[in-house]
Structures are given as C-alpha cells and as structure tokens.
Specification:
The chain is α/β, with parallel strands linked by helices and 656 residues long. It folds into three domains: 324 residues, Glycosidases (TIM Barrel, Alpha-Beta Barrel), CATH 3.20.20; 196 residues, Rossmann fold; 51 residues, Golgi alpha-mannosidase II (Immunoglobulin-like, Sandwich), CATH 2.60.40.1180. It has 18 helices and 26 strands. A ten-stranded mixed β-sheet has the order 11-10-12-13-20-19-18-15-16-21, sandwiched between helices. Strands 5-4-3-2-1-9-8-7-6 form a nine-stranded parallel β-sheet. The chain is globular and about 75 Å long. The two termini are 32 Å apart.
Length: 656
C-alpha cells in the first residue's frame, strides 16, 4: 500500500493549495518562478474546480488543467490532485434540488457557498463518481501526480428524506430487527417505540429533548455516510493507471468524523490546522492536533492546510507576528509531519476568502509574508533528509473516542458547562507543559507500549474498552482517569452504580452516589499533599479499597474524596486547576518512569525529539536561553552548540 514516503521520498513536502483558475494564465509563469524561489515542492490543485471542469452536465474542460499539470512537471513541482466534489456546480443544485442538504428543521441548505450536497443523494454520488473517474483516467499516470486528495473537509450534515432512507438501511445493518433497535434506544421512554422501520426518522427538530441514543446513532451514521462518499472516490482513483497515495484532509478535532475509522481508509492522514495567533496557548493547541493526527496516521502525516498569516473566520482576524508561521511549521515537523502546506498559494482578490492570507499575499513577492515563506522553505530543505520518516517516541497516551464525545453532547446532560474538547485540551496542556510527548489512542487500542495512559473524560465506554483498561493496569501499566468516565455503555445506557463495575473495582470505588456539576465560575477547595482548586465537576463517591489522595474542603461534597488511588489506577472526580493538574500528572509520570524530553526547561520552551534530532521551540513572549547538556550541531544554521542555545522570539533550534 502506498504511503506518504512514496510522495515525499527523503524530503519534507512544502507548498499549498493552488487555484490557477482564479487567475489569468500569464500569472501562472510568475507563480512558478516564485514557487521555485520559495522552495515549494508540491501544490494542491483542483479542490474547488468542479464548475470549471464540468461547466454543464456531462461536458469536460480539461485543457487548462492539462496545462497546469504539464507546467508543474516541467518545473519539478509535484501535484496533489483533488477530486473537486466538495463544491458542486450551481447547475446541479438548480437541476437536481434533491442533492441539496436539509437542515434539522427541514429547510433547504442552498447552493452559493460550498459543501452544499447531501452525502446520501444517489444523484450527487453519481455525478461525483463520473468526474472522479474522468480525472483518474486522464491524470492517473501523469508524471506530476504525487497524491490524490479526495473532496475537502468533509463536514456536511443532512436530515432530508433520502438521508432518512439511508439512515434506516444503516440501522437495519446495525441492529437487524426493530426490536433490537427499540432495546438499544430505550424507546419504552416517552412512548417512542417503533413498530416498523418506516417509522424511524433522523433526529430532526422536535418539540423537546430528542432521544439521545437516536442522536448518537445519527452521529455514527453521518460519519459513515460521508466515509462512503470518500471511499467510493478513493476506489476509483486507486484503480487508475498508477497506484498513488490517497488522502483527504481532516478538520482539527472535529465532531463530525470518527477519524480513527477514517484514518484506516487512507494512505496518508492529513489535517488542516489554524491556531489563533492571539491565544497564548496556541502552541499547545497545535501540538495537540499534531499528536492526534500522528497517532491516527501511526507515523508521518501531512499538514494539508495552515494559514500563512490571518484567517477570515474569526470575529477579529489578526495576522501572525513575524516568525510565528515558521515556529508552527517546524513544530509540526517536530511532531511527525513530513509535509507542510498552506491555504493557499496566492491570495484571492475576490470571493469569500479574499481576506484570508496566502503564501503570496496582496503585497506580492516583496511582502513580508512571502519572505517568511521563503525562510520556511529553506529550513525544510535543510532538514529533509535528516527528519523525513523519522518516528516521534512517546511513552504516554491520551485516550479519545468520538462515540463518547457524541454521547457527551446530548441535550439533557448534567452540565452544559462541561465541554469534552475543553477537558481533553486541559489534560493535554498539563502533559505538554510538563515536557511529556504524548500519543492519542482509542480506548480499545493495544496500550501495552505506554508507561502511562490518561483518560481525560470518556463518559461512554464499551465493554471491550473497559476490559482493555483493566487488562492494561493488571499488566503493569499506570492509568489516570478523569471524572464521569465509564458512566454509560455503547447505547448510552447508564451503568448501575454510576460507573462500570469493573472500573469501580479497578479504582477502589464502591458507588458513585451523585454527580455534582459546578455552576459557572464556582470552584471547590481541595487538599491533600497540596491544595488546589477543583473545576467544573465533583462527585459524591463511596470508596472501597481506594486511598484518598485529596479531599474536598468546600461545597456540598466537603469531606469527601476528590482524588483517589488504587495501586496503579488513579481517579480524579474533579478537574484540578491547570498548575495542579500539571504537577499531579508529572508526579504520576515520574513514578511510572516517564521523564521529560529535556529536564530544566524554561517556561515557554517546547522540546520534542524526532528520530535522533532534538527540536527546541520557543513559545514564550520573548527570547529564551536554554541549557542543553553535551555538544551538538544546530542544523538550521549549521553551527556548533556547546551547552547553551539562544532562541529569539518564536525561535527554533534543531540539534543533531
């Protein structure tokens, strides 16, 4: 099976989305000149070109794309060729309104933007397959082709009648009988029992709270329906003349796709990542997305999109300060990326993204954005042979599951203040600030190679996952688990005792009497070996064999255990404040034999090892001086380092 290395070789790919159809052809030669000057090695072409390729149903205009492909090949620039199916032409919405998605309230989501298609529509799928087949036949053996890029940022939801029919087929495959569906969904509640499959509809807008098990299954179905669209196009291009790696770009930590499942269907796992330059923890957010994507890829991965400067989708869109784009690009390489690309190459003069930055901004080649892009290209060229394909070692795993996230988002939950991504990010932040490189893993994955496994919050845990966690601890691993984990089974059915019995035995808990979500702004005082603040949540626990590590000292749970330990299994019934969570996880990690990549780091320094290289990344607001034992060579400047590294603001050093 092809992999990213088949496209990259011994280099790190560098480039971005290229939309030549937005520009007169005389601009293309200037584009190529600037690409070569900046060290660009690949461009992504055709993402939103459907109307240009198929201006009317069944017609094809490939002449312009032929010239683009040939031009790139002549200048030694590879092409990641996209199927243009993320944005159907206006003629499809006009002639085939049944292809347009419907919102939860039944209203039509009209064309005039992008992603305006129903994933279940046979008409849409037929047109998508036809244009993909013609693209594959024409360019599958083109020498410029590096990779196939299927669609773009799959993010469409639909509640139409065609979706309802597809949903019922999916449910019949999952449950076989309507009686099994009634049992799984608990339809005895509120007289929701179904007597025939035809009665089942998607969870559309309703009078009051919808059945949470139905909503959970619809989330699962939607991810699978979109994946069907993706794999259908993938199978077409795979059957073309030359087997070329295939990818589709994930949006970062997005609720709509079970990326564990999707990643198994890709040759290359890629992601679009857009941290906010005004966020003081943007570096940690980027690291989290990078760790998650590397784990899905089980090796090198691809940044398909990032911004060269400002974006256009926040209330206030500020550009990146000088050097920040370079810092984040090299951070991605440090955490396993073998391709660093941007949206887009040349900044659009018209359309909805004309204020979104590009590698060549409105200021042109003399603008500071393009000059910084040239510096990134030079850095990646220097590192290519030393870093491409190299692993990123991690002894810690964070467990994450989309099914639990979906169930956690139900309407009638204990607290709307608890947001699953926020909790996951808090735990990753603690480990990142402690200097511990982490993988992400599904709770049913083999965890045996990790010394420490942490579960920020997995409200829903299936039987196989529960057994896996118990076996991991019994086998000598150290487990730290966050609040309300294991409360529900695969069907979102609450476990007796408030937590799965096997987990209660593992953590030394007899019963979870009550969950105590905290109102906005409320905190609880906790103490043990150290005092800290408990955030978001508390629990009224009755212990059996557990040792109480910290106790609540305020609120209705005063005097009850906050943090528990039962051998190598820890349970946190609240979210400790950031400093406390970092200190606690550092202590547990040390006991488990896990140490930071670099001891004694100054605040704001990220140290990551990839292969035999040590990356030092400065996220502090100013310059840093870093002590590094021994003698090294800094690869970006090709200079010796003897014990001390000086990093400018947003500076990076790569030590061999």
């Amino acid at each position: 099976m092809p992999s990213l290395s088949d496209a990259t070789g011994s280099r790190v790919l560098f480039g971005g989305d290229y939309n030549p159809e937005q520009w007169p052809e005389e601009t293309w030669l200037d584009d190529v000149r600037l690409m070569k000057d900046a060290g660009v090695t690949s461009v992504t072409v055709g993402v939103f070109s459907w109307a240009r390729i198929e201006p009317r149903p069944g017609e094809r205009d490939f002449g312009w794309l032929d010239r683009v492909m040939d031009l790139m090949h002549r200048h030694g620039i590879g092409v990641v060729l996209a199927t243009p199916t993320a944005s159907p032409p206006a003629w499809m919405g006009n002639r085939h309104p049944e292809t347009l998605p419907r919102a939860e309230d039944g209203s039509v989501v009209w064309y005039g933007s992008r992603q305006h298609f129903c994933p279940s529509s046979p008409v849409y799928r037929s047109y998508a397959a036809a244009i993909t087949k013609d693209l594959a036949a024409r360019y599958g053996d083109h020498p410029a082709l590096l990779m196939w890029h299927i669609n773009n940022e799959y993010c469409t939801f639909c509640w139409c009648d065609e979706t309802a029919r597809h949903f019922r087929r999916w449910l019949r495959h999952r449950y076989t009988t309507i009686e099994a569906l009634n049992e799984a969904w608990g339809t005895a509640f509120w007289s929701q029992r179904y007597d025939a499959w035809e009665e089942v509809i998607p969870p559309r807008k309703a009078q009051y709270l919808r059945n949470p098990a139905c909503v959970l299954d619809f989330r699962r179905f939607t991810s699978d329906a979109l994946l069907e669209c993706c794999t259908a196009e993938r199978d077409i291009v795979v059957a073309s003349a030359r087997r070329t790696p295939v990818t589709t770009n994930f949006m970062p930590f997005w609720i709509g796709q079970d990326a564990w499942t999707w990643a198994e269907e890709e040759d290359v796992v890629s992601v679009d990542v857009y941290p906010d330059p005004t966020d003081p923890l943007a570096g940690q957010y980027g690291a989290m997305i990078q760790d998650m994507t590397r784990s899905q890829a089980r090796g090198p991965w691809m940044v398909m999109e990032q911004a060269a400067g400002a974006v256009n989708f926040r209330p206030v869109n500020v550009p990146k300060p000088r050097g920040l784009g370079r810092l984040w690009s090299l951070q991605a390489v440090a955490r396993g990326a073998d391709a660093v690309c941007h949206f887009q190459w040349r900044q659009s003069r018209q359309g909805a993204e004309k204020f979104h930055s590009a590698m060549v901004s409105h200021a042109g080649e003399h603008g500071r954005t393009y000059q910084e892009i040239k510096r990134i290209g030079a850095d990646l060229a220097r590192l290519g042979e030393r870093v491409a394909g190299a692993p990123v070692p991690a002894e810690v795993a964070i467990l994450h599951d989309w099914n639990s996230w979906w169930a956690d988002e139900q309407e009638g939950r204990p607290s709307a203040e608890v947001h699953y991504p926020t909790v996951v990010r808090a735990w990753h932040r603690a480990l990142w600030e402690a200097g511990l490189t982490t993988d992400f893993a599904h709770p049913a994955h083999d965890l045996g190679r990790y010394s420490l496994v942490v579960v920020p919050r997995l409200y829903l845990l299936g039987d196989a996952a529960v057994d896996n966690l118990v076996a991991y601890v019994r086998g000598g691993g150290t487990l730290v688990c966050g609040f309300q984990s294991g409360a529900a089974d695969e069907d979102d059915r609450i476990r007796p005792g408030g937590m799965d019995e096997r987990l209660r035995d593992l953590f030394g808990i007899r019963l979870v009497h009550e969950w105590w979500p905290l109102p906005e702004g409320e905190e609880l005082v906790c103490d043990g070996d150290r005092s800290f603040r408990g955030l978001l949540w508390a629990e009224e626990l009755e212990t059996s064999t557990a040792e109480t590590v910290a106790t609540y000292r305020s609120g209705e749970v005063e005097g009850l255990p906050a943090l528990l330990r039962n051998g190598r299994a820890w349970y946190f019934s609240t979210l400790p404040d950031p400093a406390a969570l970092r200190a606690l996880l550092t202590e547990v990690a040390h006991e488990a034999g896990v140490r930071p990549v670099l001891e004694g780091r100054p605040a704001g320094l990220e140290a990551v090892r990839r292969g035999d290289l040590l990356f030092l990344l400065n996220h502090a607001p100013g310059p840093l001086t870093v002590t590094v034992p021994g003698r090294h060579r800094e690869l970006l400047t090709d200079s010796p380092v003897d014990g001390v590294v000086h990093l400018e603001r947003h500076g990076v050093a790569v030590l061999a």
